[in-house]
Amino acid sequence: MSSLRLSNVVWMAVFSLFGVGAMGADDIRELKLRDWEPKSMLVTKTTILEKPRFPVIDIHNHLGGGRQFLTPERVQRYLTEMDEAGVRTVVNLDGGWGDRLQETIEVLDKTHPTRFATFALVNFDGIDDDDWSEREASRLAEGFRQGAKGLKIDKRLGLRYRYKSGKLMPVDDPKLDAIWETCGKHQKPVVIHVSDPAAFFTPLDRFNERWHELNANPNWLFFGDQFPKREDILDQLHRVIERHPKTTFVNTHFGNNAEDLAAVGEKLDKYPNMLVDFDARISELGRAPYSARRFFVKYQDRILFGTDTTPRRDAFRIYYRFLETDDEYFNCAASHHLQGFWMIYGLYLPDEVLEKIYHKNAERVLGLTPRPDANAQAATTDPAGQVLRVRSTADFEITGDGKNEAWSKVEWQSLYRRNGAGLPLLEEPANRSRVKLLYSTQGLYVLLDGADKKLTATFDRDGAHLWEEDCFEVFLWPDEKQPNYFEYEISPLGFELPLLMSNQNGKLFRWQPWTFDEERQGIPRKVRKATSITGGPKQSGADISGWTAEVFLPYHLLQPLNNVSPKPGTTWRANFYRMDHDGGRTTAWSWAPVGRSFHEIQKFGTLTFE
Prior knowledge:
22 strands; alpha/beta; five-stranded parallel β-sheet; 3 domains; TIM Barrel; Immunoglobulin-like
C-alpha cells in the first residue's frame, strides 16, 4: 500500500472515531470560510471604561434628518446613550438642505443646544445644469445662515455621481470649486469621505483580507473597469485641498487611507488645512499599535474623534478602550461592525493627547468654546459657548443702517430667544435678532438688527435704565483673569448706557467710564453710534417692522480693562442680548446661552480676532 493511501486510511479512521464522516457534509475539512468563527485562546487583560477620561465630541455620526424621523423619542434615545457614555456633542452629518436641514437644526441643535451640531449636504441632482454650481453654493450658504456647522460629502463623489454622458464627476471637478470656496468664506469645515478601504478595490479572491465583509456586502466592492482606481480618487481629493487652502477639510476614516499611515502623514505635513478623523477605522489602526501611537502623538493637533455609528454606549466604549488602555488583542467589532478577523491593541495615549483628540481639536474646527471645567466629568452636559471670528477693517463712518461696504463681508450671527430659565428657544423669522462685528486699530464695530412690531422706547437721555424698554446690549470681557468687564446698551431712539462692571463672585458693581469724552490727541474716546427704523417713524409707540443699531466702541473707553487693544489671535469673552417690550410683555434674546442673569460671564461666548 502506498504512503498516500495509508495516510487516507488513517484520516478516515480518525474521523470515524470522532463520529465525523470523511466524505460527509460535516467534514471539518470542508468548512466554508464564511462559517469560520475562531475564538482566541489568548488570555489578556480586559479594561472596562464606561466613561472617557475627557468629554467627547463625536465629529462623525449619522442621526438622520427631518422632523418626521427625528422624533422626540428617538432624539431622547440618542441623548441617553450619549450621557451614559460621557459624550458631550455629536455631529450629525445627515442635515440635507432646504426645509429638511431647517427641521433637523430645529429638533436637534436648537432644542438641545451644545449636544448636537448638524452639517449640510449638497444636492448632486442636475449637475449637468449650467447654474448647478451657483445654485448649490447659494443654497449651502443659506444652510450655514440657518445654523449648519459644516458640509458633509460622501463617497458617491468620485464613485457614483455621473453626468448624463456617463462620465463620473471627479472629486476635483471645477464645478465644485464654488462649494469649497463657500465653506472657506463661511469658515465651515468640509467632512469628506472619498474612496474606501484598500481591500474594497482589489479582487474578491483568496487574497482579499476583507473577504468576509465583502462577501456579505458585494455592493461595497469597487474592483473592475467600471470603477476608477482608488489612488486616482485620493489624488483628486488632495488636489482640491491644495487648491483651496482657506477651506478646512476633515478627511474621514483616517485620511481615507488608514492602511498607509506614512502616506497620511505626508499629506498632513503638506496641507495645513487638512485634518483626519478615525471613525470606523480602529480596526485598521489597532492592528499596528506602535505605528499608530507614534502617529497620534506626532499629529495630536490634527486628529478628531469620530465613530460613524449611531450613538450606542458599547460602541463608544470600544473607542475609549482603544485610545486609553494598553489592552492587547481584543475584538473591536462592537465599535462599528466586523471589519476583518484580526484583533486590535490599545494605544495608551497620554492625557494631553487624549484631551485634544476627544474634544479640543473639534472645538477649534467647529468654532466651539473650550470650557474652563472641560476636564471634569460633571461638565459633559454643560453648555459650550459660541465662537465668533472677528475680521479686521479700516475705520469707517457710522450711519445706523449697516450700509457700509465693510459689513457686506461679514456674516450675521443669530441671537436666540430665551425662556424663563434663560435657555435658548426655537426662533421664528418674525422675531429675528442678530449681530455682526468688525474691529480696527482704534475700536470695535458692532451692528445689531432685530425685527419688531412696535417701538417701545420713552427714555430721552443717555444713562437711563434702558433695559426696561426696547434695547440691544453688548457685554465685553477682554480678560478672564480679572472680574471686570464692559456693558453697553442702546435704545431704538439712539440713547445709550455704557458701564464698567465687576462681578465679584456673583456680586455686581458698576460705574460709568470716566474717559467718556471726545477725541484727544487723535485717539477716539467717545462712542460713535446711530440707529435706524424700518417700517415706521422713529418715535415712541410707533408701529414698525424692525430697527438697527450701529456702534463704534473705542478701545480707550474700555480702560482699565486688560487685554485691550486686540491683535490677531487675541480672544475676548463676550455676549450680546436684546430686550423687547411689545404689549407689556418682555422678551429676551442672547447669543451665548446663560442662566437667568445676563451677567453669568463664565458662560459667555468667545471672540477670536483674526
